[in-house]
């Protein structure tokens, strides 16, 4: 199952919502969305600095991740970015594939 790193920053309105319902309320909301699409929350951490929330989630396919991303961003409560995570075996497989590439100017 594809794995994704999600890094999020709350907007002012999103922070007000977090203060109102607490971290456990947000965890429940995240679990509901992810499991509702057949996925799993592997880790969820709140942070301070550039990111307010960091998650590692599994989804059955990238389209599910895109659906969540679009819905969350449309709410205006968070700014998010999702990064696909690859296993060591996937990188080993990628390194064995031949790619025809010419660098610019060569």
TrEMBL record:
Protein name: GYD domain-containing protein
Pfam families in alphabetical order: GYD
Organism whose genome encodes this protein: Streptomyces bluensis
């Amino acid at each position: 199952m594809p794995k994704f790193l999600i890094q999020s920053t709350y907007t002012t309105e999103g922070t007000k919502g977090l203060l109102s319902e607490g971290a456990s309320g947000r965890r429940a909301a995240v679990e509901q969305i992810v499991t509702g699409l057949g996925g799993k929350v592997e880790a969820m951490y709140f942070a301070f600095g550039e990111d307010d929330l960091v998650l590692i989630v599994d989804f059955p396919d990238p389209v599910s991740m895109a659906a969540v991303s679009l819905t969350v961003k449309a709410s205006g409560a968070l700014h998010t970015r999702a990064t696909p995570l690859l296993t060591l075996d996937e990188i080993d497989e990628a390194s064995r594939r031949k790619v025809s590439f010419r660098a610019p100017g060569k």
